[in-house]
Amino acid sequence: MSSLSLDQKKLQKRLYRLAGEAVTEFNMIEEGDKVMVCLSGGKDSYAMLDVLLHLQKVAPIKFSLVAVNMDQKQPGFPEHVLPAYLESVGVEYHIIEKDTYSVVKEKIPEGKTTCSLCSRLRRGTLYTYADEIGATKMALGHHRDDILETFFLNMFFGGTLKAMPPKLLSDDGRNVVIRPLAYCKETDIAEYAELQGFPIIPCNLCGSQENLQRQVVKGMLQEWETKTPGRLDIMFRALQNVVPSQLADRQLFDFASLTIDQQAEPRFLDVMSL
Predict the structure, then answer these.
(1) What is the pairing mode between strands 137-139 and 176-178?
(2) Measured distance between the N- and C-terminal CA atoms of the chain, rounded to whole angstroms
(3) Residues 207, 200 contacting (CB under 8 angstroms)
């Protein structure tokens, strides 16, 4: 860190601080946890590993990290990059080899988006592997912008108000997923990844498809932020301040039972003082 400029040090400290706050406020990591760090080779997962290695040094609790990458057998995938990097930083790691690429290409017509099927296949494999190695937590590299994009995608195309929670219990109750970068901005992560020179592995299977609805939503949010700086921070705070009585979900709030409170203090309007 001594070789970093003042602004670069501020960037690093900001990422460390925000990740530390998210981990603490959502009780993401506890004493004795074995955290499986899911690495894709993208900027976000590299930054997440860097942050977790820092927290491991400074946190008042002891926990272990094991990095896991899933080699989906994409053509031209540089198999040597992640092992070389992980060995250089001294992190235990496992590479899962599973040809989901062929399955996706077989099932999804050319030109259609592959992310949904690809992510389901990857998620199922990682959940199972976490069980096998005894991981108590699964860390994913989603950040603040991912969470907001998912919120709008679900609202626009799914008719639901939901996003990516910073901490999640899997449907079968066997895995706890954590997102340590939940409070971090994508722009900060991208700048930090470039600063650190992480050996980024591009995704040629799904992430580069230009017709993804996520890319449309991302562009919309970026335009809002450009026109009104700070708007994304405000929107993210909104996700942390939900008021069910001011929405319309009858499962969250009992609207049907609302009646006048006969014991309430009466209000008297003094029209002469208006």
Answers:
(1) parallel
(2) 64
(3) no
